[in-house]
């Protein structure tokens, strides 16, 4: 029994893009809580599902999840996905409507285009778990303020009891002058106090900005970049004299690789960091080496290199499982 649709449904709770290799990608978009004016219905926030038939390349997410869930190899998981996609394409070719449990339905329109109808009953937003839509009754306000009646009553009272106003002499209040002077002094003091606080905040922000830049720089040095379609590496050996002959030869031998399939462990901006990575991997028993500088100017380090593709795929699955899930396969022919 092929449970690929169930695995896709489980991954939609955690990720925004799930690619079914060879068929398309399921995308999720967050929608806030809404109110429908006509029915006074309240709907909780949710994830809206859409489908993009242009994204078909295998990113490894679904295959790795199936391999982990069913305790099978990565290659077997990829083969299982291929069989599932083949069965979907055969049903679509016959004009059948395909129902994916908890996801939605696929069908072919009159213009012979693939159409996707998402399932509305399932909410993949974990933050809204347990929330349901409900309708609120209309609030009716029957109390009306009769202004004209009140106006007539007030006018009748004024006619019966005429109001007279006597001017009042103001007394001099000298203490108000002192209060005004005190307010001015407090304002001036507050201005200088705020300026000092502002200068302190600016100095603190500058220090934090420098720390953040330094941390970003350190992470860039240790970053691993995954490139799906890398350009072939070009090694330029420039001999400036007898003094540089030995150095150039050692650099070339250090970047010499055997095989077209390389399992990449990382890419480093500084060459010394790449050399350190090579030594660590060699200490772990790998035949680690440099495989050149890519078009981004990063020094690439490989666990191993292979001539045979199947051997490289098997070794990649083992390294992902035992060493690092960030390892990937680079093909340089």
UniProtKB/TrEMBL annotation:
SUPFAM superfamilies tied to this protein: Sporulation related repeat (SSF110997)
Domain SPOR: 255-332
Entry keywords, A to Z: Membrane, Transmembrane, Transmembrane helix
Pfam families per the UniProt record, alphabetical: HU-CCDC81_bac_1, HU-CCDC81_bac_2, SPOR
GO function terms (MF aspect): peptidoglycan binding
Gene3D superfamilies recorded: Sporulation related repeat
The protein, known as: SPOR domain-containing protein
Organism name: Aquimarina atlantica
